[in-house]
Amino acid sequence: MNKEQSAPKIKRETKNSIKVEFDRTPFWQRFKAKYLTTYFLTKVLWAIFRYVLLIGISYIILFPFFTKITSSFMGPDDFVDATVKLIPKNFTLDTYKYIFLENKYMEAFKNTLIISLSAALIQTFVCAMIGYGLAKFKFKGNKLLFICVIFSMIIPHQTLQLSLFMKFRYFDILGIIQTLGGGSRLLPTLNILNGTTSINLTNTFWPLAIMSMTGLAFKNGLYIFMMRQFYRGVPNELEESAYIDGSGLFRTFISIILPLSIPMMITIFLFSFSWQWTDQFYTSLFFTKNSYILMKNVIAIPESLNMTYAGSSLYNAAIRNTCGLMILFPLIIMYLFCQRYLIQGIERSGITG
Amino acid sequence: MNKEAEMKLVSDVPKKRRKSASLDKKTARGGYWFTLPFIIGFIVIYIPVVFESFLYSLTTIERITSGDTYQLLWVGLTNYQDALFSDPSYVQILTSGLFQLLFDVPAILVFSLFMAVLLNQKMVGRAAFRAIFFVPVILSTGLISTIDSGNQSLLNYMTDTSTGISTGASNQTGVTEIVNAMDIKYLFANMKVGAGIADYVVDVINHIYDIVNRSGVQMLIFLAGLQSISPAIYESCNVEGASSWETFWKITFPMISPMILVNLIYTIIDALTASSNSVMSYINSVYSTQSGQENLSVAMAWIYFAIVIFFVALAAALMSAFVFYQRRD
């Protein structure tokens, strides 16, 4: 059957183009060779399987958000109407309006913004500094210090909640205030502070600020670990050339190292800001008075919407979810802008054990 | 004038040399400067807090309202005895909580590794999927997870189709199950792997939302680990004709094993602080509702922590025998 391959026949020739006819393997054979192989078929099957799985899990993640959003627009009647499922019949914005007006949303927003923003900024900077110190300098106790960081990550703060509270309720650094206040056994006559033996720091920002500044706040061990891994991948030559040019340690850090690590720092800022924003543990531990309105106080049923009827348990759940949505709103906006950096930062960190 | 200046220069040189430390010493000092905040915090705040926390578990607090101070009364191991033998529900909640932990941790680890491998592959819409998968890390913590835990009725209401076409999936207890347990059990019975695994898989699938929510950071860590594996290794594997299944077990798995150890520890510690953790919420309720029982709650927390840290140490010791470290530098 082997035909001799004939020279291509010229079909049509003009000045600018030429059409040639030559023998080709038939379409069906080409198709078979290319697409009906086990290699190609397994690849297609795997792709389908992968997309089904990914879309399915994305649905699992996003569906609760959809229900929260749609139920936040439903009026009270919709929760007893069996025909209303996901699309509201009595479209209303009352839920948002009353939460905004009666739950002091703006005040909570302002207070929480101050706390979260400053805590996150301090934590990002301090963790970057500590991570840099651990990654780039060889000094006595470097390894021990790193073990201490891991150690501080391992004991959950829930275990320490009573002593954390007591520490900041009766705050004192190494007994200095107690000594000045005349409370110590060694110098009882010294009484500069009129018998004050400690400072009450609860219901102020200070407990969180102190913990952030010393790298001990929520999951700061993880941030330090991430920063350390990131800086270990930064070549030493950068700093060496800066030193040769006469730049000091801190100037090198501020003007060369920090700009390099911006994706990683945005990741850490995103984590610490959003975890502080929705935090419940520290705010209820350190802010015992309810007069200081924070996001945790927003979650309540507004007076005007408080009613008892057949669907009230569902309606109240929907209201509480709307509160959650309103709390999340700034975070969602921030996430949309920052997720690019989040993924970039993680990819560059190359965390290795 | 000239001579004097020269003399000065000459005399200056050795002085300066003596003053300036060697580069090593300088950088060592720099290291202390950079880590100073943590050193101070660890010594002044953290160690006392941990020590006092342990002390509180052995004492009771009496507040002296007049002088704005407090007094500790030594009670020895009474708090521990109370927690283990007098408290009506602590031991029961503790054991069920520990079993829950044993159940959750492997599920989260396997799931996050699998998802990280999937999200690491090149495909259309990878960035979008990654963004969606990391949503729970940011948006389902703290206050929101507390709201979510009271949400089951609303979700059921939204997904319940019993008024429309009956699918038979929703059972009478009101919990909507994603898969029917009977189907999976039937499937596994034919595969002859035992009823225990079937129950486990059914449970995992029905708690998938919880597991997805809690495996965000683990996925990030795995993804970062996968990124650090050199593509040249995969290439040579491909050339030698290894299938992707073989490549996963012979290349990816050993290379990612340090990350598995890190994630194992992280998952256990994270599960300790999760608001869905029944033991911790019980301890919290003891702390906040029963006045005068704060020390009891501390003792409970230490017992729980000691048991869990024992498991962590055991698991880490077992794991570290299998962990493969690629030598670099």
Topology:
The complex is a heterodimer of chains A (about 350) and B (about 325).
Chain A: E1 9-13, E2 18-21, H1 27-35, H2 38-72, H3 94-102, H4 105-136, H5 142-154, H6 161-169, H7 176-180, H8 206-213, H9 220-232, H10 236-244, H11 249-260, H12 262-277, H13 281-286, H14 295-298, H15 312-349
Antiparallel strand pairs in A: 1-2
Chain B: H1 2-19, H2 23-57, E1 59-64, E2 69-74, H3 78-86, H4 90-120, H5 126-133, H6 135-139, H7 143-149, H8 152-159, H9 181-191, H10 195-206, H11 208-214, H12 216-227, H13 231-240, H14 244-273, H15 278-289, H16 294-320
Antiparallel strand pairs in B: 1-2
Helix pairs in contact in B: 2-16, 3-16, 4-12, 4-14, 9-10, 12-14, 14-16, 15-16
What does this structure look like?
With 353 residues, chain A is an all-alpha fold. Chain A has 2 domains: 9-67; 103-298, Orthogonal Bundle (MetI-like fold), CATH 1.10.3720.10. Helices cover 62% and strands 3% of the residues of chain A. Chain A has 15 helices and 2 strands. Chain A has a two-stranded antiparallel sheet with strand order 1-2. In chain A, β1 (9-13) and β2 form a beta hairpin. In chain A, α2 (38-72) crosses α15 (312-349), α5 (142-154) runs antiparallel to α9 and α12 (262-277) packs antiparallel against α15. Chain A is flat and about 105 Å long. The model of chain A has no long low-confidence stretch (mean pLDDT 80). Chain B is 74% helix and 4% strand. Chain B has 16 helices and 2 strands. Chain B has helices at 2-19, 23-57, 78-86, 90-120, 126-133, 135-139, 143-149, 152-159, 181-191, 195-206, 208-214, 216-227, 231-240, 244-273, 278-289, 294-320; strands at residues 59-64, 69-74. Chain B has a two-stranded antiparallel sheet with strand order 1-2. The model of chain B is unreliable at 161-176 (pLDDT under 50). At the A-B interface, α2, α4, α5, α6 and α8 of A face α2, α4, α5, α6 and α7 of B.
